[in-house]
């Protein structure tokens, strides 16, 4: 039997409605007394509210996180943390915010605490990404693994329908690719299937009623499982495509994941028969030939914009992305075929079904 290998995961995970109100006590328990709250510009107000809650242990709000962690943004944040004697970075937000906290930790080894407000899953991994010269590179480092994660589904109630849907499909992509990862194993595959089912169930309910707290709880559970998958096994072609779309064209990370997942799984539908049969079952279709269309239709039901051209990808984008992906590939259960990938990305560009 193949040996199982797991990356480290955060040891202190808190989950529950209103749990973020306990953040001060949790931080003090871990010995953090000069905590820098990191947000995006759009979440600055939420960061200030949290800062008031933390009272004397707050070092203020740093509201400068942006998508894909540009290296110049990361360098400024590192300098700020060093010059203000910060002893912990608290990331309040989604992948952009957590990504900036990880960039700080990579250089300073400062501990990270996260309060996720989307379903990105980054809080459960040792994976970081930094963009320089329109190229997004990723890596792994144990020093960037958050020490504490606080899940509070109530914080997601203000997340708009489209962002909720795209972020949830981003999480689903982590679980899907865990099924056919190079280092996949039965335990992670079980979590991946559970994640896919939970997100498929919860996301339509959230889009239908943003105040549905039970659906928010279910989606948070699915996203947590997806994050564990992301942190435990490697990813494949889908993540390479999305990292290229984000790093080269600065497309929305979650939206790129949501749109292109249908085409990625269609490309791999016959590459790992066992994985794709299990995916088909989780998605509620009868054949692995239908997995791409099932994801496409799920996106439609969630009212996710379906065409990459409407997200800022230029006309030459599909060919360029296909070339970059083929020139510097991640592991994938089938070989990279430039012409087929270009064709699928052209369909994604136009918002057409994958098959």
Automatic annotation (TrEMBL):
Which EC number(s) does the record attach to this protein?
A: 1.3.1.32
What UniProt keywords apply to this chain's record, in alphabetical order? Answer: NAD, Oxidoreductase
Q: What is this protein called?
A: Maleylacetate reductase
Q: Which family does it belong to?
A: Belongs to the iron-containing alcohol dehydrogenase family.
Output the InterPro entries linked to this UniProt entry. ADH_Fe/GldA (IPR001670), ADH_Fe_C (IPR056798), Alcohol_dehydrogenase_Fe (IPR039697), MAR (IPR034786)
**Domain Alcohol dehydrogenase iron-type/glycerol dehydrogenase GldA stretches:** 12-153
Annotated GO molecular function terms are: maleylacetate reductase activity
Q: Which Gene3D superfamilies does the UniProt entry name for this protein?
A: 3.40.50.1970, Dehydroquinate synthase-like - alpha domain
Q: Does the keyword DNA-binding apply?
A: no
Query: Which Pfam families is this protein grouped with?
Result: ADH_Fe_C, Fe-ADH
Domain Fe-containing alcohol dehydrogenase-like C-terminal, by residue range, is: 165-349
């Amino acid at each position: 039997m193949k040996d199982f290998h797991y990356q480290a995961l955060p040891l202190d995970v808190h989950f529950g409605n209103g749990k973020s109100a306990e953040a001060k006590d949790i931080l003090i328990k871990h010995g953090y007394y000069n905590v820098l709250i990191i947000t995006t510009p759009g979440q600055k107000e939420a960061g200030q509210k949290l800062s008031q809650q933390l009272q004397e242990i707050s070092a203020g709000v740093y509201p400068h996180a942006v998508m894909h962690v540009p290296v110049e943004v990361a360098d400024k944040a590192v300098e700020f943390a060093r010059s203000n004697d910060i002893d912990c970075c608290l990331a309040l937000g989604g992948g952009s915010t957590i990504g900036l906290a990880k960039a700080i930790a990579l250089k300073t080894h400062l501990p990270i605490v996260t309060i996720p407000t989307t379903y990105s899953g980054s809080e459960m991994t040792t994976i970081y990404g930094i963009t320089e010269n329109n190229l997004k590179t990723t890596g792994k480092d144990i020093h960037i693994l958050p020490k504490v994660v606080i899940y509070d589904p109530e914080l997601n109630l203000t997340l708009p329908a489209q962002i909720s849907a795209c972020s949830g499909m981003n999480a689903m992509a982590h679980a899907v690719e865990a099924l056919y990862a190079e280092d996949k194993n039965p335990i992670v595959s079980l979590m991946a299937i559970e994640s896919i089912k939970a997100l498929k169930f919860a996301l339509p309910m959230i889009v239908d009623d943003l105040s549905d707290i039970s659906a928010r709880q279910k989606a948070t559970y699915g996203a947590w499982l997806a994050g564990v998958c992301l942190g435990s096994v490697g990813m494949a072609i889908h993540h390479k495509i999305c990292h290229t779309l984000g790093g080269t064209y600065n497309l929305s990370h979650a939206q790129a994941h949501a749109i292109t997942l249908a085409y990625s799984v269609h490309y791999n539908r016959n590459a790992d028969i066992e994985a794709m049969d299990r995916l088909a079952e989780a998605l509620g279709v009868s054949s692995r030939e239908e997995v791409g269309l099932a994801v496409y239709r799920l996106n439609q039901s969630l009212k996710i914009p379906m065409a990459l051209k409407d997200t800022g990808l230029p006309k030459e984008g599909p060919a360029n992305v296909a070339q970059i992906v083929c020139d510097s590939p991640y592991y994938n259960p089938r070989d990279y075929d430039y012409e087929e990938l270009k064709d699928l990305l052209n369909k994604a560009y136009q918002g057409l079904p994958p098959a």
